[in-house]
């Protein structure tokens, strides 16, 4: 599958290369355009993913490598101590971001910023970002953040405020290499990954958080 957000990047070089190559009788232009279209089709690939069947597992929101794990005070949404897990996506990773839990999208908001290389620690604080405030079915709050990078200068949301989502369902897309940060409440959380681990969006468990019993 190819994500529809990538169609303009695929069609434009393909059509231009074909037309210009045909009229100029230059096969290099033709092959160059088709090659660029194929490269974009590969970049915007969007395979189906299947999460583990365990409601206590929080799965990775992105493909890539875990580059940071911190304990912080998250004040935008959770308003409590949280684990902040940073996942860096290079140009070769699938760039569709997925819901880490089954629940509801409580809010989505955007913060303008710079475009520093996304693998730097200061990228989260200074770069352009899009936030997804999620609530698991048992009420556990989870915050996912798309962070723009040096090449990735646009984040795309595929859901709206109020939507109900399943774990591994598509939430958004970052165009070209970038980073995703995930915040989960620190209390009772058990981390399942370390810095350097490779993870897959919608499939790799990264945190185990006990199911919270609701008051009846």
TrEMBL record:
Reaction catalysed by this enzyme: a 1,2-diacyl-sn-glycero-3-phospho-L-serine + H(+) = a 1,2-diacyl-sn-glycero-3-phosphoethanolamine + CO2
Post-translational modification: Is synthesized initially as an inactive proenzyme. Formation of the active enzyme involves a self-maturation process in which the active site pyruvoyl group is generated from an internal serine residue via an autocatalytic post-translational modification. Two non-identical subunits are generated from the proenzyme in this reaction, and the pyruvate is formed at the N-terminus of the alpha chain, which is derived from the carboxyl end of the proenzyme.
Residues carrying the site annotation Cleavage (non-hydrolytic): 177-178
Active-site residues annotated for this sequence: 178 (schiff-base intermediate with substrate)
Enzyme nomenclature, EC number: 4.1.1.65
A GO CC term assigned to this protein in UniProt: plasma membrane
Function: Catalyzes the formation of phosphatidylethanolamine (PtdEtn) from phosphatidylserine (PtdSer).
Protein name: Phosphatidylserine decarboxylase proenzyme
Native species: Thermodesulfatator atlanticus
Originating gene: psd
């Amino acid at each position: 599958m190819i994500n529809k957000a990538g169609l303009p990047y695929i069609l434009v070089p393909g059509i231009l290369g074909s037309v210009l190559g045909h009229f100029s009788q230059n096969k290099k232009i033709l092959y160059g355009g088709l090659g660029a279209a194929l490269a974009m089709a590969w970049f915007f690939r969007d395979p189906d993913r299947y999460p583990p069947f365990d409601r206590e597992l929080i799965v990775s929101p992105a493909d890539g490598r875990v580059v940071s794990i911190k304990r912080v005070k998250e004040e935008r949404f959770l308003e409590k101590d949280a684990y902040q897990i940073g996942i860096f996506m290079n140009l070769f990773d699938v760039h569709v971001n997925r819901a880490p839990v089954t629940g509801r999208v409580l809010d989505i908001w955007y913060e303008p910023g710079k475009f520093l290389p996304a693998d730097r620690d200061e990228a989260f604080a200074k770069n352009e970002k899009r936030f997804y405030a999620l609530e698991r079915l048992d009420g556990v709050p989870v915050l996912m953040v798309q962070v723009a990078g040096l090449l990735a200068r646009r984040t795309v949301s595929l859901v709206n405020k109020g939507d109900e989502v399943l774990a591994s369902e598509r939430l958004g897309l970052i165009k070209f290499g970038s980073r995703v940060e995930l915040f989960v409440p620190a209390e009772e959380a058990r981390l399942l990954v370390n810095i350097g681990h490779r993870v897959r969006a919608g499939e790799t468990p990264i945190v185990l958080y006990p199911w919270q019993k609701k008051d009846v």
